[in-house]
Amino acid sequence: MTFFGSSGASTESPPASEDAVPEVPPSTGRRRGRASTQADKQAQTPDSRGVVVCGSDRTMLRVVTELVSSGEQVTAIVNPASRHIERIGELGAQVMGVRVVRESVLRRAGIDSDGTKPSAARALVLLDADDVHNVHTALTARDMDENLRIVVQMVNPRIGAQLHQLLGDCVVISGPSLAAPAFVADALEDDELTWLELGGRRMVAGPAALIREKVTVLADTTSSATPDLLPQSSDDPAGDIVLGTGVHHLRRKRDVRRTGWVMATRDVLDRRVRVIAAVMASLVVIGTALTHWITGVEWLRALYLVMGAVTSAGIEDDVFADAPPYAKVAAVVVQLTGIVLVALLTAVIVDSLIGARLSRVIGGVRGRPKNHVIVCGLGTVGARVLEILSERGVAVVGVEQDEEAPGVQTAHRLRIPLVMGDSSQEETLRLAGAPQAQAVLALTDGDITNLETAMVVRDLNDDVRITMRMFDHDLAHKVERMLGLGHSRSVSMLVAPAIAAAVANRRTQATVPAGRRVLLLTEVTVERDSVAVGRRLGELDEPGGLRVLARADGVDWDWSPTFERTLRAGTRLAVAGTRSGLARLLLVTRAPHRPGRSGRIGP
């Protein structure tokens, strides 16, 4: 099972060029170019069988577009209520309007194998927003065809991590993991770091000064004009480009502080509460004085009696037994007034708590924050953005209207200030500190809401960096070109290529620049009958060309592998290498496609 979630990842097979960035002329070395080309042809062997796609949301439209444009025969199982059903049919896909996906529906779509001949469909893509439905459909399809390739988009990564045990050949796509690093990079104008999912862990590659918890050194670009890739001169080689699991904090988190209980108490005790409390205090003072003068009791007892009356605790009858009638009437009036005031006070406090909500009152923004990032819309993508920004130590404020949104709990867990309200309203954005912010990310599910948010933010702050999440490509292009409101990104546009690559069984790889050369980080599976089966893991390492970082024979990854271990079919490897080094690895880990073909390990 492969997890896709890298920033700046390429889904294409490695080209036949040398290990240089585009501006560097390719190498004329025939040997290396031939190896790369041969590996690419094996990776892209055509298959005339079709692909079945289930879903009804925006991502499905993008995925079908991507698959059809790449020449796939697509059967789309769509809910008839979807507003994209007509557009999906216009793209050239065969559309089946079905509300519930059952075994009979999958069989009609071409998923049915009796063990002697394959199904008419070679892959199934599940894009339902409900993880439970996706898992149920995936299990049903696996029972129908044990060789079917299944690609699933999952919201809950913990469930996705267990699918490999249940389904075998399964690829899990995480939209938030794919999109969040791109939004963070826009907010921070940071193109030095490359975020990726590798070997079951979320990793980051970049300058050593920014990376903490270093895993390995990828390159040394300081010693000479030619970078030293994958240095192995010592147990702990020096280098300025490294791979790690986290980054150093850019700013202190306390630059933006939550309101806390002190500020919450102040917000609850608003003007209405203070007015009612002042009236009750006046009644107590006046009533204490009159009780003392009329009944002749001492001051403290008079205060006690009046406070009991105002708060509806009762009046001692024996004290007023000999008082004039008007005094008894006045005592009753005071008591009734107190009952009304206590009821009003209770109602006002409850209204304040309900209106402001505890999440807004306790977790709001204290003071006037500066140079922070505002994340508007705390759905699954917004929640992931909050986590990454928090890990980097960036001062951040969340804005959300729905208290049940996933990112609200994330904000509370990470102690991130939170403003509950409509992000397209100026008052809400002012509470979040938009006039002093350095960047605003509009990540709600509505294009119009994100556009309105961007326009209000631009009116409040001309210098702020704005990134909008927009599905409508034409609208996004016009907004960027004509209104100048900042960048726009689409989660579905980021997810669709990764799904198409998974369907075609192409690797997803992250590209890490090292000077004027590049390194590729990816995962490779040792196929049955390949040359690598039975060899030692250490034989795959190639100084300056390839490094094995982790291995997995099941679900769990071993990031400290024993290089004397023997490779077997199905072993997955997390590797870092040059393009030519990776091409040679693919030659020995893939099963031969024609008789007489051989491969070798090493340079």
UniProtKB/TrEMBL annotation:
Domain RCK N-terminal as annotated: residue spans: 370-493
Compositional bias (Polar residues): 1-14, 35-47
Zinc-finger is among the record's keywords: no
Keywords: Membrane, Transmembrane, Transmembrane helix
Membrane-spanning parts: 273-294, 329-350
Pfam families: TrkA_C, TrkA_N
MF terms (GO), sorted A to Z: monoatomic cation transmembrane transporter activity
Alphabetized InterPro entries for the sequence: NAD(P)-bd_dom_sf (IPR036291), RCK_C (IPR006037), RCK_C_sf (IPR036721), RCK_N (IPR003148), Trk_Ktr_HKT_K-transport (IPR050721)
An example Gene Ontology biological process: potassium ion transport
Organism superkingdom: Bacteria
Domain annotation RCK C-terminal: ranges: 509-591
Keyword Membrane: yes
Region (Disordered): 1-50
Xref: PANTHER family: POTASSIUM CHANNEL PROTEIN 2-RELATED-RELATED, VOLTAGE-GATED POTASSIUM CHANNEL KCH
Protein name: Trk K+ transport system NAD-binding subunit
Species this chain originates from: Kribbella italica
